[in-house]
From TrEMBL, chain A:
It comes from Pseudothermotoga hypogea DSM 11164 = NBRC 106472. Transmembrane segments: none annotated. This is Oxidoreductase. The keyword Oxidoreductase applies. It holds the Pfam family Pyr_redox_2. The keyword Aminoacyl-tRNA synthetase does not apply. InterPro entries: FAD/NAD-bd_sf (IPR036188), FAD/NAD-binding_dom (IPR023753), Metab_Enz_Cyan_OpOx_G3PDH (IPR051691).
Automatic annotation (TrEMBL), chain B:
SUPFAM superfamilies: FAD-linked reductases, C-terminal domain (SSF54373), FAD/NAD(P)-binding domain (SSF51905). It comes from the Bacteria. This is Ferredoxin. InterPro entries: BFD-like_2Fe2S-bd_dom, BFD-like_2Fe2S-bd_dom_sf, FAD-dep_OxRdtase, FAD/NAD-bd_sf, G3P_Oxidase/Oxidoreductase. Residues 2-354 form the FAD dependent oxidoreductase domain. Residues 402-453 form the BFD-like [2Fe-2S]-binding domain. It comes from Pseudothermotoga hypogea DSM 11164 = NBRC 106472.
């Protein structure tokens, strides 16, 4: 089988990329390993999606549905393969696809990789103690509750005040599961302020900042979680231990871009841990484009959609014969934790995403000849800024700095 | 003739399978919900070459023989072994002297092809090793396996050959006539028996006490481990030991069968009342981290997949305690299986059937006609050729539905694991490697729960992780 564009993953980025390519009259195969398109959006039944992209507030499934409809409108151009896992991607631009219908090789002119991110599992945290049941990542808890219609427990503690953690605290509460608190290692919440208010404050769920889980107890089902305060180096402070008798622990401790399939095919970025890309979505391998949380973990699905569209567009232009250089590297400087994209090619203005290193009241962003002041910065809220190409001309390296003012 | 084997770890399972070669009725009684879930489940998974064990010890007698038996056993029972070879590393002259002693000891124990390599040879084979290494004892017969798979495979094969397996059944007492045991009393029923073989792992001393037979006191020695992602699988190719001390073989670095990297274990002696203590500790994990960096200086701990602890039974003699009881004439011990218990297990099983039962106890065992020595493992579709896989999917579409993406496990494999006896999430995990990968089940656990629910015709709330009270999900969100 042959196609112009193979899109791997039909979440927000993949669907947008497939539609963008189909609009340019290319033949697209989109492979989704789950039973339906939409990715993680399908289990995010809370609202707050689409405010930037659609200028209205949607739930995850609603947001996914809008793109699913568009996919079906391009049915002639886009072949949607659900329940289809891309097992391997080869150097010769072939892929091995596995589904209950068939196992087959597909030859593509270009690939848009949009596999999203996975959650950091409990095991990787090296928390001492027993290994009972009842410990879930937020995504698993979300899937069990929202798709499989199952309660994950009776009394729960949440670790990590990222958006998913806080949203799950609310969700569990709404379904009659007692949430005794949310534990956060940082001295400030890990997610958006609106979620702190709507998910925790409104439900009287305590947030324990500068705290961490130091032990889990229970040889069968979870029985107890011990939490301690941490010092500035995140080391638990002896004597500050507090015990919570819970049967459920929900972890929201970070997402890791899924890049394994591209091992050896593309370069990764050390900071984002994702696929290093140019602003065209192109990776270090000219025929592999990437978008969404497999490149960097984004705050909002709206951004992911935008990046998917961009990767779809440039991938299409690549199929049509255009060639792009990666461009000049974009590097995080003073007070900047990470930036995306990782390279800039002056075919277009730059949409730059960045995270600061520490909370700052006011800071001046400096990128090439571009400057802009931001207020109330925290690392968990991504800064997005559009920088005109004129401000970035004649640079062989773009440093991104945040000067505290 | 009815023989009851108590404990379905790797030792008990292999004994049970060995006995199934004869015309006897074999019962295997296990208190856990599955086989291989005690000592067997969490250890270093090494096939030791056999140079460690003191000359003349019971350990030495069975280790290198057992090691050699694994080649044929893994072929018959279709589980994986890898003869990776092992290095014991010496970083100074004192340690180098120990290597020479180990070499001599190993040769006396019958270990083949031992040699001492210099720094250059070691680094050419294992470039990630600390370049300060001086010498290394190379044992090419050492290898790795998945211990629980040995038990699972042995039991599956034994079941094909008539074994009666009793899971979730704990021995609570024995019924005796005079000194002889006539019944094994469990929390569920009484089994009439002629012979009892005690392979109850950490609890074998307690079982022997119940029977009124000889025993050695057992205490658990805890080993904490760190498992790293498959990405690191190639960073070492063989089993890397430090120079051993009196107490243990030390903290090691070794590849796992499925390409991960395993670090550990600690050796922490616990009192005998803590035989269920599988907790990890900060100190334990930290000591593993600190120690392994001396062997392999560049280990990326951001690739940790999980930490866990296992317990191995240790006795004052530091040796296996195997043989027929002098007090209870129809009771046989196979206990105190500290390292290298896994390696020695096939040799112990054979010894118990052929020498203890037949020769010493004068039990006439006649060979069973039609014994089928071979068992096939669950087909791993991702390892098939494209054509074979295509054919398989045409016959059975679920062979093309990928459930565990990290370890490439299809729905067909999970269904097959359930058909072969998996009743729990861990049962599926240990048979298929689903949920064993870098995401630790984040993507597949909920799907596997549903498959279990469907195949077992039960409700998800009834499905447990590993033990009767390890429930996974509660009731429904909406009726």
């Amino acid at each position: 089988m042959k196609t112009d564009v193979l899109v791997i993953g039909a979440g927000a980025a993949g669907m947008a990329a497939a539609i963008a390519a189909a609009k340019r009259n290319l033949k697209v195969v989109i492979a989704e390993r789950d039973e339906i398109t939409g990715g993680i959006l399908n289990q995010c039944i809370h609202n707050g999606f689409g405010l930037h992209y659609f200028r209205e507030e949607l739930t995850g499934p609603e947001y996914a549905e809008r793109f699913r409809e568009q996919l079906s409108r391009y049915a002639g151009a886009i072949d949607v393969l659900n329940d289809c896992h891309v097992l391997r991607l080869n150097r010769d631009r072939t892929a091995l696809l596995v589904s209950p219908k068939n196992v087959f090789e597909l030859e593509a002119k270009v690939v848009v990789y949009a596999a999203g991110a996975r959650e950091r599992p409990f095991g990787s945290l090296m928390i001492p103690g027993d290994r009972p049941s009842g410990i879930f990542t937020a995504g698993v808890a979300q899937r069990l509750m929202n798709i499989d219609n199952r309660k994950v427990g009776r009394k729960a503690l949440i670790v990590g005040s990222g958006d998913i953690g806080m949203i799950m605290a609310r969700r569990l509460t709404l379904e009659g599961i007692e949430v005794v608190g949310v534990v956060e290692r940082l001295p400030y919440p890990g997610g958006l302020l609106r979620n702190v208010i709507q998910c925790l404050k409104d439900f009287n769920i305590p947030l324990y900042l500068s705290s961490t889980v130091v032990e889990v107890k229970g040889s069968e089902r979870l029985e107890e979680v011990v939490v301690a305060s941490v010092d500035e180096q995140f080391r638990p402070i002896p004597g500050t231990e507090k015990s919570f008798k819970v049967d459920t622990l929900v972890l929201s401790v970070g997402l890791i871009p899924q890049v394994e399939m591209l091992n050896g095919l593309v370069t990764l970025d050390k900071r984002t841990r994702g696929i290093a890309c140019s602003n065209t979505g192109q990776s270090s391998n000219e025929w592999i484009f990437a978008a969404g949380n497999c490149t960097a973990v984004f705050d909002l699905v709206d951004y992911v959609t935008k990046e998917g569209e961009r990767a779809g567009e440039y991938a299409s232009r690549y199929v049509n014969g255009e060639r792009f250089s990666l461009g000049v590297p974009i590097v995080p400087g003073e007070n900047v934790m990470l930036t995306f994209p990782n390279y800039y090619n002056d075919v277009d203005d730059l949409t730059l995403y960045l995270r600061c290193k520490k909370p700052m009241e006011k800071a001046l962003l400096k990128v090439g000849g571009f400057e802009k002041t931001f207020e109330d910065l925290i690392p968990s809220e991504m800064i997005v800024v559009k920088i005109p190409k004129q401000k970035l001309s004649n640079l062989d390296r773009i440093e991104v700095k945040l000067e505290e003012v | 003739m009815r023989v009851a084997v108590i404990g379905a770890g790797v030792v008990g399972s292999l004994i049970a399978r060995e006995l199934c070669k004869y015309d006897v009725e074999v019962l295997l009684i296990e208190k856990n919900l599955d086989v291989g879930w005690g000592v067997t489940k969490a250890n270093s998974a090494i096939l030791h070459a056999g140079y460690d064990d003191p000359v003349g010890s019971v350990r030495a007698r069975f280790c290198s023989v057992g090691n050699a038996m694994y080649t044929e056993l893994s072929r018959e029972l279709d589980f994986e072994i890898k003869r990776t070879g092992s290095y014991v590393l010496a970083f100074n002259d004192e340690e180098t002297a120990v290597l020479h002693k180990l070499l001599v000891q190993g040769e006396k124990n019958g270990v083949p092809n031992l040699s001492i390599h210099d720094r250059e040879t070691i680094l050419s084979r294992e470039p990630r090793i600390n370049p300060e290494v001086k010498m290394g004892l190379w044992a090419p017969t050492a290898g790795i396996t998945e211990p629980w798979m040995v038990a699972i495979a042995a039991v599956e094969n034994a079941l094909e050959n008539g074994l009666k397996l009793f899971l979730n059944e704990e021995v609570v007492d024995f019924e005796k006539q005079g000194n002889r045991i006539v019944g094994v009393i469990t929390n569920k029923q009484v089994h009439r028996v002629d012979v009892v073989i005690n392979a109850a792992g950490l609890f074998a001393d307690e079982v022997a006490k119940l029977a009124g037979a000889e025993y050695v006191p057992l205490h658990p020695r805890k080993g904490q481990y760190i498992l790293l992602d498959k990405k690191l699988g190639n960073s070492v190719r063989s089993v890397i030991f430090p120079t051993p001390t009196e107490k243990s073989k030390g903290i090691l670095v070794l590849p796992t069968i499925d390409g991960g990297l395993l670090l550990g274990p600690t050796a922490e002696d616990l009192p005998s009342d803590r035989k269920n203590d599988l907790t990890t500790t900060n100190e334990g994990i930290q000591s593993v981290k600190d120690f392994v960096l001396k062997l392999v200086p560049e280990i990326d701990f951001s690739l940790v997949v999980k930490t866990f602890a296992g317990l191995r039974p240790e006795s004052p003699q530091k040796d296996f305690f195997i043989g027929k009881s002098e007090i209870v004439p129809n009771f046989v011990n196979a206990m105190a299986m500290r390292s290298p218990g896994l390696t020695a297990a096939p040799a112990i099983a054979k010894y118990i059937a052929e020498e203890v039962l037949q020769q010493q106890m004068r039990i006439n065992l006649t060979t069973k006609k039609g014994f089928k020595p071979e068992r096939k493992g669950i087909r791993k579709y991702a390892e098939l050729s494209l054509e074979e896989w295509q054919r398989a999917v045409k016959e059975n579409p679920s062979a093309g539905r990928m459930i565990c993406f990290c370890n490439e496990v299809t729905e067909a494999e999970i269904v097959e694991a359930i058909r072969r006896g998996a009743r729990t999430l861990d049962g599926v995990k240990f048979r298929t490697r689903a949920m064993f990968g870098r995401c630790q089940g984040d993507f597949c656990m909920s799907k596997i729960l549903k498959i279990l629910e469907r195949e077992l015709k039960t409700d998800a709330s009834q499905i447990v992780l590993k033990s009767p009270n390890s429930w996974v999900v509660d009731g429904k969100v909406r009726e």
